[in-house]
Amino acid sequence: xxxxxxxxxxxxxxxxxxxxxxxxxxxxxxxxxxxxxxxxxxxxxxxxxxxxxxxxxxxxxxxxxxxxxxxxxxxxxxxxxxxxxxxxxxxxxxxxxxxxxxxxxxxxxxxxxxxxxxxxxxxxxxxxxxxxxxxxxxxxxxxxxxxxxxxxxxxxxxxxxxxxxxxxxxxxxxxxxxxxxxxxx
Length: 185
Known about the structure:
single chain; alpha+beta; four-stranded antiparallel sheet; three-stranded antiparallel sheet; globular
């Protein structure tokens, strides 16, 4: 498994996964179709906005339809002989704190036909050096209590449960587990 910076060279594999029903946003299923349309309109801009460490890509649409400013972020494609999913890291400059409309520093998703292979766990461990480079001492990651596979991914990467809470209404207002992963020196 390796993490690839999104590129035009692999955009067809990404689009194929979207067309097969995979969505890069587990809170907004319509995101897959929106991304297909965006890629058809301007694939180069779409790809460049996935790697956005200066938060230039504009507003972010939340599950309730509201829009908030983006945080600096990067996205990597999980690759193992083919496109297998994605992992993203977002942060707020100078602090580990995040706004209430951000559900953690790291989010990931693996296409259904490649789940259960340890790809998400490997990707999570592989992206932690990016968090260290951004100056963070730890990252927070959230998941639903109804997603035991995600809990296992986080725990395998050293995550410790720090709290259960109700997510911001803009994110669906559902019960959420928050984990912390310390970043090693």
